[in-house]
Amino acid sequence: MRRRHSISCVAVFFTLAATSRSAQAAPPPADLILRGGTVYTLDAPRSWAEAVAVTQGKLVYVGTNPGAEAFIGPRTKVVELAGRMVLPSFRDSHVHPISSGVDLARCDLNAATTKEQALAAIRRYAAAHPDAKWILGGGWQLPLFPAANPNRADLDTAVPDRPAFLSAADGHSGWANSRALKLAGVTRSTRDPEGGRIERDASGEPSGTLRESAQRLIDKHIPEATEGERREGLRRALRMAAGFGITTLNEAAADESDLETYGGAEQAGELTARIVVSLELGIASDESEIGRLARLRERYKSARLSAPAIKMFADGVIESGTAALLEPYLNRPGDRGTLNFAPARFAALATAADKQGFQIHIHAIGDRAVRVALDALEVAQKANGARDSRHHIAHLELIDPADIPRFGQLGVIANFQALWAYADPYIVELTEPVLGPARSRWLYPLASVARAGGMIVGGSDWSVSSLNPLDAIQVAVTRRDPDSPAGPAWIPEERMELADMLAAYTIRGAYLNFEEKTTGSLEVGKSADLIVLEKNLFRIPAEEIHSTKVLLTLLAGAEVFRDPAMPK
């Protein structure tokens, strides 16, 4: 009833506005009108409308069907939506477009549900690429292997003739065969690098699994992807993003070569999304590196490409025991995981980056890492004075209840990857057993952060998980596997409302990027960044959200994706 009341009030308002205009000169004809739809504007009062009109990439009308008539001219394209839903286009606030796009052409293990399936996929790929000097790729799921620890002997059976290295789906572990370990000189005497761990068998020999920064022992021997491969990977990512209704991508961790790839794509007219880059600040960096990144920020600043943020990795992940916890892992007595930066150094670097005007984007999984990140941002705020910084912390798998109110208090944005917030094998087999029930209650506490006044935005972390925002939105609403039927929610206290998750992927994502005045909602004067969905998400069962198709994606009024089912 409340929704119908809202629609009727908006309809009366726009009818009155249209009547008032009719007494004046008629507006210029629009280029495009979408009418007969269910338009959820995501403006401040969360208004509903029936039609939108677009001229030169901007919204010139949002209102009722009758009010749109004044904008129709002889060359206006009018599309009848027949009740289909119109939303602002989606924004992915944490994603890896180039590397994920490159990986799509490599050995893809994401679909493997057993170790045997993963090894079979590797064999097929190796056989199909006999001239490849390395077998590269990834996407293997940690629960496929005991203790999330695949071994080199298995990989040797699949790739006996050349080095192979395959990243885990979460990017925090890698699986090497014996040839790759030998080429990199990784032996039983090799010490764990700072911020990393070489897993070892009972005899002390490297098992084949490398955690966190230990992966770089292999990475530095792998031939880098060519610029052509990177550009093609970006094209793949942009096509996928447009198909899922995404027109802004926050690159989560980039270096100068990534900026060059993005810049080249923009010069060639290939950027079908806005790219907002976080430049990675490595664990060995000092304040001089922040100055170098500031110079890159100034060099890459254009209509669809910017680099306003610095990325810092506070810790690793719980499943492999590399996330930083306030209390020890239950299966690793005395071990609380590792911080990538000592707290004082973290705070000093954050303060320096904040002073340079950078937005700070932090990876934090464990509750100790989250606390240290919040502490560092509070130190920066006190040292440099409060400003509209819009710093954000990503992932936030485990937050201590005492720290939940601090997001709102400090103005730190919570950048959740909500697709992970259900009881999948990662949670059931690898996470809850090492935390115990009391701590596990605070896994992915989206609703608690929102209730305490924190702002939530949404990201995928693709290729770690699905790029489709509707997958994550559904899980946030149901706290269940997106492919499962209705049933009990996992930690039901943390379920989100659909309206709030749509805001997380639209207007609040725009706010994160300081763009809320120009895009992120469907309001007159804003950029015509919008999508058409085949169904009204508010009128279908929550379990159907993720299967709803995007039919049309517009960026500044230009079509970047169209499904054959979209009316013409």
**Global Rg:** 24 Å
* Beta-strand segment tally: 24
Low-confidence segments: 1-23
Overall 3D geometry? globular
Cross-sheet strand order for the largest sheet = 8-15-16-17-18-19-20-21
Count helical runs.
19
The main β sheet shows up as: 8 strands, parallel
Alpha-beta classification: alpha/beta
Strand content: 15-25%
Which key features would you list for this structure?
568 residues; alpha/beta; eight-stranded parallel beta sheet; six-stranded mixed beta sheet; 19 helices; globular; disordered N terminus
Question: Could you characterize the architecture of this molecule?
Answer:
It is a single chain. By secondary structure, the protein is an alpha/beta fold. The chain is 33% helix and 21% strand. The protein contains 19 helices and 24 strands. The strands form 4 sheets. An 8-stranded parallel sheet has the order 8-15-16-17-18-19-20-21. A 6-stranded mixed sheet has the order 3-2-7-22-23-24. Strand 16, helix 10 and strand 17 form a beta-alpha-beta unit. The longest helix is centred in the first third of the chain and has 21 residues, at 2-22. It is globular. The two termini are 33 Å apart. Residues 1-23 have low confidence and may be disordered.
